[in-house]
Amino acid sequence: MCRWAAWMGAPMFLEEVISRPEHSLIAQSQRAEETKTAINADGFGAAWYNHRPEPGLYRDVHPAWSDANLAALAHQVRSPLFLVHVRASTGSNISRENCHPFTHGRWSFMHNGQVGGFDCFRKQADMLIDDAHYNARRGATDSEAIFLHALGLGLDVDPLGAMARAVGDLQDLSERHGQGPHMRFSAAFSDGARLYAVRYASDARAPSLYYRYLSDAAGYMVVSEPLDDAVGDWQAVPSGTALIFDGSSMETAAFAPGALRQAA
Amino acid sequence: MCRWAAWMGAPMFLEEVISRPEHSLIAQSQRAEETKTAINADGFGAAWYNHRPEPGLYRDVHPAWSDANLAALAHQVRSPLFLVHVRASTGSNISRENCHPFTHGRWSFMHNGQVGGFDCFRKQADMLIDDAHYNARRGATDSEAIFLHALGLGLDVDPLGAMARAVGDLQDLSERHGQGPHMRFSAAFSDGARLYAVRYASDARAPSLYYRYLSDAAGYMVVSEPLDDAVGDWQAVPSGTALIFDGSSMETAAFAPGALRQAA
Amino acid sequence: MCRWAAWMGAPMFLEEVISRPEHSLIAQSQRAEETKTAINADGFGAAWYNHRPEPGLYRDVHPAWSDANLAALAHQVRSPLFLVHVRASTGSNISRENCHPFTHGRWSFMHNGQVGGFDCFRKQADMLIDDAHYNARRGATDSEAIFLHALGLGLDVDPLGAMARAVGDLQDLSERHGQGPHMRFSAAFSDGARLYAVRYASDARAPSLYYRYLSDAAGYMVVSEPLDDAVGDWQAVPSGTALIFDGSSMETAAFAPGALRQAA
Amino acid sequence: MCRWAAWMGAPMFLEEVISRPEHSLIAQSQRAEETKTAINADGFGAAWYNHRPEPGLYRDVHPAWSDANLAALAHQVRSPLFLVHVRASTGSNISRENCHPFTHGRWSFMHNGQVGGFDCFRKQADMLIDDAHYNARRGATDSEAIFLHALGLGLDVDPLGAMARAVGDLQDLSERHGQGPHMRFSAAFSDGARLYAVRYASDARAPSLYYRYLSDAAGYMVVSEPLDDAVGDWQAVPSGTALIFDGSSMETAAFAPGALRQAA
Q: What residue stretches are annotated with the Glutamine amidotransferase type-2 domain (chains A, B, C, D) (predicted)?
């Protein structure tokens, strides 16, 4: 499993999430608390929106705490919308191509969780990716496969619908060819205009997800686990829920791949 | 394009190919002479057979000349059969997974050349890889795809036949979906018992291939371009030819993917 | 030898120097024209000033052309003052600590050139670095030694004077313990308020230096070699000269370590 | 703090220490038990003796568990004498130059421990290194400084005496300029003919050290902490002790830098 955090609001230095808080993402890469893997040292990444429609992306395989370049970037780069991730591999190689976030055009995506038994059906999963997006497949993670499949299903047109169908299709492959738990999915994605966060699992153990509104920075922090001990300020997100952040407003919606698949 | 060299004979330090000769592989990574790309600095790799049935594999993305670990390995490791490669990317990312040689079980494989327009049909190429070998697909190169497809076609049983069919299938995809030149293929592969080298192209410009018998080391050096100026000692290999090295004997055979495909 | 470029003016994306021009820094890392080493692939670095008094610093050992992180950074980061460098090692290891620019507090520094026979007196050179700055010594380059020594000599108070004395001291060590050419020094440094560029050598062969005023971007580009073929627009800087850029004004001054040393 | 292991005996694959045991060095890099830092993920290294007088050296900054090259090397390389180390930084940068073991000529050296307040007197420590060995100073660790100083003091002629004097000199610098605890020193070093291990501290808390004789492999394993739970077989080494392994014999001697310094 992994840990991640996202921000949407007034421009903020990346380090306000990556390193400065008491239980920052770098701290979580060494001592995560709400997940089985305390150590998340198989790489890190940051995707940030600023002057361009497409996000910048910085990823590397070193543990987050030991990378001077990440520290410099985090200290210097300010952005109104960014996604940051520290990785604990669930099977695939340690390489930059397998680090989150993944980006494609304006979209960025990161994931905490797993598709059960993915190695048993990676070929079928790759084949779900449509021709237009196949060349963006650079690594071997289940996460990248979900993202690229969702792009092909119309992430541009119906973000939550496309993501739900993609998650549903991968869960279906796991049920037919893989092993349980079939789908654990706590993810964030953005097109630079809105930020989406989803918490879902095929069983009762969806990876944790919280959000918090920071009034002085007029924005929302969305995280795998709280960045500090101000417990009352962090809202836990129920499983089967999607959050849509648009400027300083937030909406919720149900997220139910199972239902979508039954309908199809 | 890339440069490579292979050895089969008495145990030899890897540096006798990697760094010591006048026009060693490291020299060729900076100043190759018989290829368009003089610089081959997009990574390197070495696969060597010694105490195990499966080969050791060391690959990294740094230019070969600047890696202290490679220098140490080359100075220390002796092997009777090894493959070494310096890479110039023909499109895919610079990452360890895209460096040659590739290995699987006892097999190792490296390639100089290109499958024309590969990005236009990478999906179909990946789909050629059979289920048993798909999980070994770690990168995005045409070379790795040829290798894994050949494994699925029975490289164990009929090495040259399987490789010819794999090359033919990829050439066919290029003719239908890609662009010319469709296939440039100068490759070496081994199962630890024999060393195979092939020179082939769909047109008249197969990447160069030479071999040389070293009597004092009782073995064969096979290379993209000669490691020194002892011109008379290096034999050029004609296009459409395969060499089979077995101990200190060498055989030649025709290598004709086109013919195989016509038969199929 | 190396290649570098610096900008001071209206905020500009780093890629306007790193990758977009016809003969960008990345192009120069593969095909430099005005230096002996055509290939400058032993690492790269960028230091940029923006929201903070101290600069951001991103350095890595990969060739500049193959680093996706650098490409993303260059595409996303805009800065009114930045220094960028691609390295060809003159002896010391390939490591991040030996890549330019070097930074300390508000200062950044990069160098093209060499102190002759540095390995013969590295110990004495290191000893020149004052106690307050010694812990900033992370690598083994002559360049970092010049920078840290200059800091100790009062770079804050008298930038050109301190740099001239530092260069003079290192040249002196080379004359006494090293070998010719004793000092080749084409450098740029900044405190975030002004940009300084110097061209100097102990002999007649100072590494090249040019500058150009871009009126539409209201600023100055300073480079090892021109970024494009607009020959008339690039002004060659004479040896023994320092340029001081302050906002959109430029002054010149003599740079003469020899004279300073005679006076001392 | 760090973890390390060394072997001297019949040729053994490096993986018998690096990865195969229940509590192998890679396991210790994630869950060390006898030290404050459970995670030792700031790099690793292996030095091995085989066909050459000087050892091979492979070091990198990735966590040991995630490096495919290390796994391959460990699986393929057999050696009768090797030193392996996983690092937890005590202050200096994460870089290859700061990873253990360090080598120079025939000598290799690795260290678990710390020189208290080293950053307060690194300059004086560097100045202890004699001219003949100064150019070997590539990093900024206290460990490399001890090693190079010991070389200058005659490690070739009197290994334990030179090492004791070097340790004493660094401890002295710490007492005068640094902070307690002044010296923690659990180290192994070799010239390829003998293997030395030392356990020492300026206070009562010397880092742990054990050894074990493997009769079937006719050799000695020396470790920071046992590689498995066969408790009775691992002998704890008292503080203030040096072990000298020569072929299959072992001697002990007192190790007392304090005494040497008083005598001087």
A: 2-264
